[in-house]
Design brief:
Elements (H helix, E strand, L loop, with lengths): L1 H6 L8 H13 L20 H25 L14 H13 L10 E4 L2 E4 L11 E2 L3 E6 L11 E6 L7 E4 L12 H4 L7 H8 L3 E7 H17 L3 E7 L8 H14 L8 E5 L1 H13 L6 E5 L2 H5 L6 E6 L2 E8 L4 E4 L9 H18 L1 H17 L10 H17 L19 H8 L8 H18 L5 H13 L11 H14 L5 E4 L5 E4 L4 H15 L14 H12 L2
Parallel strand pairs: 6-13, 7-8, 7-9, 9-10, 10-13
Antiparallel strand pairs: 1-2, 1-3, 4-5, 11-12, 14-15
Helix pairs in contact: 8-9, 11-12, 11-13, 11-15, 12-13, 12-16, 14-15, 14-17, 15-16, 15-18
């Protein structure tokens, strides 16, 4: 480091005795050095901050080597914990000293950046007016383990504020793959921003990871889009299905990122597909160089309102859904509902289940829209009936916005009291248990079964009326999703509840309170859970007794259930 700093002109060359003394000093600490004859330099380079950085690196290495050697010579001995032997006056003096170590800046932190380095700002420190203050801090304090052997032992609390900004951008129906639309290239950058202006000035490269089914349908258009915009690109096609959602698949994506030599800041990976594709590419991007930007392009109704708008990514592991993953959001999610046109109606209904989740939890307007339009939204795949038909777009926008409202303040799930967990308390266990069986359920369908049970439980706990319960169950049926599955035995239910309690540090059940409102409930007795389970079976199983006149099953929903769920 010293030699490099000298070569770059940051340090004045050492000559004669000064040089020899430096080398002797370093060798005295057993640091390997390379002696270089610097000759009779005539220039006198100025010493800058880089010089200090180089000297600091060398000095730190020397001190570490010396300390390590000293410690290695000491005999190991058992030290019994002892309380600090300081009287009250000394303790007060120490506290006052530590208080003076910290001064808060305008951003709330005690770290300031000047002279190309960060500094803990102490009381009476001189900070240049041009310094950049951080909202992060490093707080020194007395170590609680200090004793008579080391009264000066310290502890440091490092507080870092990590923020994520990401865009969720709707594109008019059918426009995303139109070469005249630049969203796939620049849509992650706000218009008018310096970052976007810089991106417009340089050639662009993109790695696209696409689900193989989506590639068969849209691959030619995707390739034509990037060729038309003269973007250097490569396309990786993979079978992105739930059965393949593994770390092995994630590593395939990471390997391609390495081969593409992707830039870690300016070349976001583009994931095009359903939730599995978006989750796997997100996890690979979070792992590759610890965080590489990526863009989500959802092609299913489910991923449009679920996987695309949050921060989570992951893969299945050990027989559990999404057991491995991170909280790293995309730099953008680009939304075009035209992709729904190539989905089956069951797939679209699968996505509507996640929309119904937000309706039941927090939006009476969305609830009423789904109650009225749910059946035809699944059948027509969100195509408007006329130019004046705003229901499809309104349902999508309310679903996305209500999801973002819940996710943004709790992006890393510091709080496990989450309304967005509605439908996911026992539904995930149901989904994994049904996987590969004759009664296999899609994600939204398992969520719907969970929501139906929790609705029955909410009524049993007097959080909603019988009329509101039946209205909610009928809304779900109208959206053409199942409200019951034979896979959910009572034994599986008990196991799923136990998993929920373990993973969420308690029950933390989101339950409806009437229509469009909810609360988090804990400490529900086993007896109440069992009684609700039995009542759910009576109300929602296909062979439910006819004397439960309060439940009215729409004929179209029942036919859909028989044709597509029981006998797909």
């Amino acid at each position: 480091a010293t030699f490099l700093s000298t070569s770059l002109g940051f340090l004045q060359p050492l000559r004669g005795e000064s040089h020899d003394a430096t080398v002797r000093s370093l060798r005295g600490h057993r640091v390997e050095t390379l002696r270089v004859d610097l000759g009779q330099a005539t220039t006198e380079p100025s010493i800058s901050l880089a010089a200090a950085a180089g000297l600091l690196a060398v000095s730190a290495a020397a001190l570490c080597a010396r300390n390590a050697r000293t410690l290695s010579k000491q005999h190991c001995r058992v030290v019994r914990p002892q309380q600090p032997v300081m009287d009250k006056s000394s303790q007060n003096e120490a506290r006052e000293l530590l208080r003076k170590l910290n001064t808060r800046g305008p951003e709330g932190g005690n770290l300031a950046h000047y002279d190309d380095a960060w500094h803990i700002v102490k009381e009476n420190d001189s900070v240049p007016p041009s310094a950049k203050w951080s909202d992060c801090s490093v707080e020194p304090s007395m170590s609680e383990y200090a004793n008579h052997a080391d009264l000066g032992a310290r502890a440091w609390m490092s507080h870092s504020v990590i923020s994520f900004d990401y865009r969720v951008v709707e594109v008019p129906r059918g426009n995303l793959l139109d070469p005249s639309c630049d969203a796939m290239i620049l849509g992650h950058l706000p218009r008018g921003s310096e970052e976007r202006w810089l991106a417009e000035q340089r050639p662009q490269r993109r790695l696209i990871v696409i689900d193989e089914t989506v590639y068969k349908l849209y691959g030619d258009r995707v390739r034509a889009y990037f060729e038309s915009r003269k973007v250097q690109h490569e396309i990786l096609v993979l079978p992105m299905v739930e059965e393949n959602k593994s770390m092995e698949l994630t590593l395939e994506v990471a390997k391609k990122m390495k081969q593409f030599n992707i830039d870690r800041r300016t070349e976001p990976v583009i994931a095009i597909g359903g939730g599995v594709c978006l989750d796997v590419v997100g996890l690979a991007s979070a792992l590759f160089r610890r965080r590489t930007p990526y863009i989500r392009v959802p092609t299913t109704a489910l991923s449009y309102v679920d996987a695309s708008v949050g921060a989570k990514n992951g893969c299945n592991f050990g027989g559990s859904k999404n057991r491995l993953g991170t909280y790293v959001p995309p730099c953008a999610a680009l939304l075009d509902c035209a992709f729904f046109a190539t989905q089956e109606s069951r797939d679209v209904a699968n996505g509507i289940a996640e929309m119904a989740k937000m309706a039941i939890m927090k939006s009476e307007e969305l609830f009423c829209l789904l109650e009225e339009h749910g059946p035809r939204l699944a059948n027509d795949k969100f195509m408007p009936n006329s130019d004046d038909d705003g229901a499809p777009s309104r349902v999508l926008r309310l679903s996305i916005e209500s999801m973002l409202e819940e996710l943004a303040p709790n992006l890393w799930e510091h709080s496990l009291e989450r309304l967005v967990d509605f439908g996911h308390c026992v539904g995930q266990d149901l989904e994994m248990a049904a996987l590969g069986t004759e009664h296999e359920l899609m994600h939204g369908e398992s969520v719907a079964c969970d929501m139906a049970y929790m609705t029955v439980l909410a009524q049993q706990l007097s959080l909603m009326t019988v009329e509101e319960r039946d209205r909610t169950l009928n809304m779900l049926r109208g959206c053409q999703v199942p409200v019951w599955s034979p896979v959910m035995t009572y034994e599986l239910f008990v196991e799923a509840v136990a998993n929920r309690v373990k993973n969420s540090m308690g029950q933390n059940f989101p339950l409806a309170v009437g229509i469009g409102k909810a609360c988090i409930v804990n400490d529900i007795s086993d007896e109440d859970l069992k009684q609700a389970f039995m009542r759910w079976q009576e109300l929602c199983a296909p062979n439910a007794k006819a004397n439960h006149a309060e439940v009215h099953v729409p004929a179209a929903a029942l036919l859909h259930y028989v044709d597509n769920i029981l006998m797909p």
